């Protein structure tokens, strides 16, 4: 069971996550960050360079402009690019060209799931079919109706939906959305994913610095719970 930890915003927090046993580290970045907590490309590069080679380094973008994403990748290229903006904004054909031009970059496409809708009322399976030939991973995450961005809600959705998605594709699926050390084992039991992701539940209760937000104790508890599921 792979454990993915978001949002890593500093070398110190990256070190905490590595020490606690995380397998994937996710770092949000942009040339000109406008979203809270996102790093500049230069800041992200410093964090990536501090992470051991056996850890998967994931760069998160919420950009819906493929040209903008290309410029970011020319400055700093992670192992995996996590596309977490409006899924309708970037076509699979554009992602395919991106992967060809930035080999060996891998893609993690976020699949939006609404917490207040059943599977039949959502487009999740349609998105899986459309994007699976260009995706190396799917991140199944809760989406707010009021935001184009997928994830970072801290809200649980129906894990049976995750299971249906996972069973529909050969792409490795990581599940997210309100997961914590208290509920991750049940989520794994129901959905049987490739991996699990945590952002909000592994943050400090009251971080005093927006670049240093992660709790090593909470990450360790999450990792142990996931690995013991």
Automatic annotation (TrEMBL):
Keywords: Amino-acid biosynthesis, Aromatic amino acid biosynthesis, Isomerase, Tryptophan biosynthesis. Its EC number is 5.3.1.24. One of its GO terms (molecular function) is phosphoribosylanthranilate isomerase activity. SUPFAM superfamilies: Ribulose-phoshate binding barrel. Gene3D superfamilies: Aldolase class I. The keyword Oxidoreductase does not apply. Pathway: Amino-acid biosynthesis; L-tryptophan biosynthesis; L-tryptophan from chorismate: step 3/5. InterPro entries: Aldolase_TIM (IPR013785), PRAI_dom (IPR001240), RibuloseP-bd_barrel (IPR011060), TrpF_fam (IPR044643). CDD domains: PRAI. It catalyses: N-(5-phospho-beta-D-ribosyl)anthranilate = 1-(2-carboxyphenylamino)-1-deoxy-D-ribulose 5-phosphate. Residues 5-224 form the N-(5'phosphoribosyl) anthranilate isomerase (PRAI) domain. PANTHER family: N-(5'-PHOSPHORIBOSYL)ANTHRANILATE ISOMERASE. Belongs to the TrpF family. This is N-(5'-phosphoribosyl)anthranilate isomerase. The gene is trpF.
């Amino acid at each position: 069971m792979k454990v993915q930890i978001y949002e890593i915003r500093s070398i110190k927090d990256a070190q905490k996550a590595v020490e606690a046993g995380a397998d994937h580290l996710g770092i949000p970045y942009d040339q000109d960050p406008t979203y809270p907590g996102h790093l500049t490309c230069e800041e992200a590069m410093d964090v990536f360079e501090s992470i051991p080679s056996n850890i998967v380094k994931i760069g998160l973008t919420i950009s819906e402009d493929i040209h903008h994403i290309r410029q970011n990748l020319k400055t700093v290229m992670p192992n995996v690019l996590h596309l977490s903006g409006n899924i309708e904004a970037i076509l699979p054909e554009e992602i395919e060209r991106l992967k060809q031009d930035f080999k060996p970059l891998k893609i993690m496409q976020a699949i939006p799931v609404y917490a207040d809708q059943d599977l039949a009322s959502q487009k999740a399976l349609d998105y899986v079919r459309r994007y699976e030939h260009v995706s190396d991973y799917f991140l199944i995450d809760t989406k707010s109706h009021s935001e184009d961005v997928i994830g970072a809600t801290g809200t649980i959705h129906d894990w049976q939906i995750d299971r249906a998605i996972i069973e529909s594709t050969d792409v490795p699926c990581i599940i997210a959305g309100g997961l914590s050390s208290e509920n991750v084992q049940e989520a794994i039991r129901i959905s049987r994913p490739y991996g699990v992701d945590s952002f909000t539940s592994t943050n400090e209760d009251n971080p005093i610095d927006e670049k240093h937000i992660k709790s090593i104790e909470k990450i360790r508890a999450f990792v142990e719970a996931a690995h013991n599921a």
